[in-house]
Write a structure and sequence with these properties.
The chain is α/β, with parallel strands linked by helices. 29% of the residues lie in helices and 17% in strands. The strands form six sheets. A four-stranded parallel beta sheet has the order 7-2-1-17, covered by helices on one side. α4 (57-66) runs parallel beside α6 (155-163) and α13 (348-357) packs across α14 (368-383). The longest helix has 16 residues, at 368-383.
C-alpha cells in the first residue's frame, strides 16, 4: 500500500486496500495506533545533536531515550559505495579530518549544487578511511565536550540501533533517512537511491507499513523510489530567505547553493520551478502523486516580519497545512532549535504549541525532550 488516495493504485480497489489492513487506523498511520497518530511525530533531527555530535550512534540513542518517534540520518556515499551519516558530502565542519595528516592530500574542490566547495568529501574516502575519523560538534554555540569520541556510522549500524530499541510509547523506532544531494552523487556514478533501497530491503524496512520516511530536496530521486517501492516518501522544500514583510525569497545569489530555493535536479534539467511552486494547490497535487508528506522550512507554515530595528512579529498561519491535508500529505516542518527565538521569543514550548495548533503532523527538532514535553502540555491543554 503506497498512499491513502481515491485514485486507483496498482489495479487495487479502495475496498481491497482497506480490507488488507488490520484496521483503517493502521492504513492511515503506517502501523501506528489511532491514539498515537493524532499526536505530532517527534523527529530527532540528526539525533540529539544539542548534546552529542550530530549523526553519531550516541546522538541517535540519546534521542530515542528522550522520546523520539523517529531518528533522522542524512546519508552520503563513500568511494566504495557505503552509505554513511553526514549532513553534507563535505566533512571538515563535523569531523576531525583536518587534523589527520594521512588525509591531507584528499582535500579538493568540487561544485555542489552550484557552489564551489573546497573541503574533504566523503566520496573520496573508503569506508575504512571514514572509520578512522571522529565526529565533532558542528555548532559553535553547543558543547564540544564529546568531540573526538565517536565514529561516523553506516546506515546499517543505525538500523541495527533502531531495531534494538523501542520508543518510550513502546513502538518500533522510526527511521527518517535523507538522501543528500542525489544529483551530485549520480554525476559521480553513485546510485544513492538504489543503495538505500537495497539496505532497506535487507533490513525488512522497504514497505509502506515500515516505520520509515525517505526524504529528499530533489524530486526525481523520490519519483524513482516511488516507482520501485511503496516506502513512505517526503518532499523537502526550502527558501533562500524571508523578506522583511514575511514573504519568502527564492532568489539565490550567484555562487551560492541553488538548492536553497529550488530542487537542484529541476535546475539542472532546465525546469525553472522553485520551491514556491510546491506551496501551491498545483504543487501539492504534484507532490501527492509520488509522496506521502512534505517537509517545509517553518516560514512556509508560519512566517514572520522584521522591522528596521530588528523586531520580529510572528504572522498568522498560512494555508500551507490546509493545502497539504487537502491532498492527504503529512506536514513535517523543520527545524525547531531553542537558539532560534524568532517564533518562540525565548519560550520553546509556546513555539511548538503554535505549530501544533497550525495542524502540523510532526516536527524536526534538535531538542527532542523539549518537543516531547511540549506535546504533553499541548495535549493536556486540549483536554481541559
Amino acid at each position: 500500500m503506497k498512499k491513502m488516495t481515491f485514485l486507483p493504485i496498482a489495479g487495487l480497489s479502495l475496498l481491497t486496500l482497506f480490507t488488507s489492513c488490520d484496521k483503517l487506523d493502521d492504513f492511515i498511520g503506517g502501523g501506528h495506533h489511532e491514539e498515537e497518530i493524532k499526536r505530532p511525530l517527534v523527529i530527532a533531527h540528526r539525533g540529539a545533536q544539542s548534546i552529542y555530535p550530530e549523526h553519531t550512534l550516541e546522538a541517535y540513542a540519546k534521542a530515542i531515550e528522550m522520546g523520539a518517534d523517529y531518528i533522522e540520518p542524512d546519508l552520503v556515499m563513500t568511494k566504495d559505495s557505503f552509505l554513511v551519516a553526514r549532513h553534507e558530502p563535505f566533512i571538515s565542519g563535523t569531523t576531525n579530518v583536518a587534523d589527520v595528516p594521512e588525509f591531507a592530500d584528499l582535500k579538493t574542490t568540487k561544485n555542489l549544487d552550484g557552489k564551489e566547495i573546497t573541503d574533504w568529501f566523503v566520496s573520496d574516502f573508503t569506508l575504512e578511511q571514514i572509520k578512522k575519523l571522529k565526529a565533532k560538534q558542528g555548532s559553535s554555540d553547543r558543547s564540544d565536550n564529546f568531540d573526538g569520541m565517536f565514529q561516523i556510522p553506516t546506515i546499517e549500524e543505525i538500523i541495527a540501533l533502531a531495531k534494538s530499541r523501542k520508543t518510550i510509547n513502546g513502538n518500533d523506532v522510526g527511521l527518517y533517512p535523507e538522501m543528500k544531494h542525489p544529483y551530485f552523487h549520480n554525476e559521480m556514478g553513485f546510485a544513492i537511491e538504489d543503495a538505500l533501497l537495497t539496505v532497506l530491503s535487507r533490513a525488512g524496512m522497504n514497505s509502506y507499513e515500515s516505520p520509515v520516511f525517505v526524504q529528499c530536496f530533489e524530486v526525481a530521486p523520490l519519483q524513482y523510489i516511488n516507482s520501485k517501492s511503496d516506502v513512505k516518501l517526503v518532499q523537502l522544500i526550502s527558501t533562500y530567505n524571508v523578506n522583511a514583510d514575511g514573504t519568502l525569497d527564492f532568489n539565490v545569489p550567484e555562487g551560492d547553493f541553488i538548492s536553497y530555493a529550488a530542487p537542484f535536479d529541476f535546475y539542472a534539467n532546465g525546469d525553472d520551478r522553485t520551491y514556491e511552486y510546491f506551496s501551491t494547490d498545483a504543487g501539492m497535487r504534484f507532490v501527492s502523486s509520488y509522496a506521502e508528506g512534505i517537509g517545509p522550512w517553518k516560514p512556509f507554515v508560519i512566517s514572520f516580519t522584521k522591522d528596521e530595528s530588528g523586531t520580529i512579529a510572528v504572522l498568522p498561519k498560512t494555508d500551507f497545512v490546509d493545502l497539504a491535508h487537502k491532498y492527504e500529505l503529512q506536514v513535517h516542518p523543520y527545524t525547531f532549535r531553542n537558539e532560534d527565538e524568532k517564533w518562540s521569543n525565548g519560550n520553546p514550548e509556546a513555539e511548538y504549541h503554535l505549530f501544533f495548533d497550525a495542524g502540523v503532523d510532526g516536527v524536526f527538532t534538535d531538542y527532542t525532550d523539549d518537543a516531547v514535553n511540549a506535546i504533553q502540555t499541548w495535549e493536556g491543554a486540549k483536554k481541559k
